[in-house]
Amino acid sequence: MSIVMETDLLFAHGAALGFCANLFHPEFNRTLLHRCAEEGLSGSWPLPLTDETTRENQAAVLDALDTPTEEYLSAIEADNTALFIGPVEPVPMWESVWRTRERLLYGDCTEEVRLAYAQAGFTTPDDIHEPEDHLSLELTFLAALLIRSGQILEDGRPDAAAGELETARAFHHLHTSLWAFDCLREIGRLAATPFYRGAADLCARTLFSLEALFGR
Predict the structure, then answer these.
(1) Contact, 184 vs 98, CB < 8 A?
(2) CB burial readout 172-196, b (16+ within 10 A) else e
(3) Which CATH fold topology does 7-214 show?
(4) Above 90 in pLDDT, residue 133?
(5) Cα-based distances in Å from 104 to 93, 98, 130, 179, 187
(6) Which SUPFAM superfamilies does this entry report, sorted A to Z (predicted)?
(7) Which residues does 129 contact at the CB level (< 8 Å), separation at least 6?
(8) What percentage of residues in the chain have a pLDDT greater than 90?
């Protein structure tokens, strides 16, 4: 296995993962939608768009951020409610629900994720009040590690940067890769708007690209 150590790629994956984390923030609303738009990714997605379907799904997300109409904003809000809140059974956004037979919150993997955060010196954002294994938090953690490794590499410390990147690779291998793709497929299947279908695809493609970076 050979992990790619290029500053631009590390920052690009960190930016893309952070953007995806915001798209699946547990309290996603119009304010957060505007924050996503202000991140500056709408003009140039940082990762290669490998096929026409990916380009179309990316456009569905970024176009909604660039020029959202009142009608489409309302549709996104309704889709968010249907997907993640109810009244029909929502898509579970926690690793433990996907990976435990009982499909309950706070499984062993939740504690493992919490420990991984602590060991890496990662503190969860103040505006997320969810178990540590929520998809948005796992993506935020991976983004932080990729950006940190890029910064360390820029400082001329390749061995330390490789250590940060190995932490990210191990976490993805032991946690995110084991459930996020299933979760994102379910979101894409049930989504009523191109926005959430595009968001699910864009996030999955970002994780596939991350695996290529890790040399899987």
Answers:
(1) no
(2) beebbbebbeebbeebbebbebbbb
(3) TorD-like (1.10.3480)
(4) yes
(5) 11, 8, 14, 14, 19
(6) TorD-like
(7) 26
(8) 62
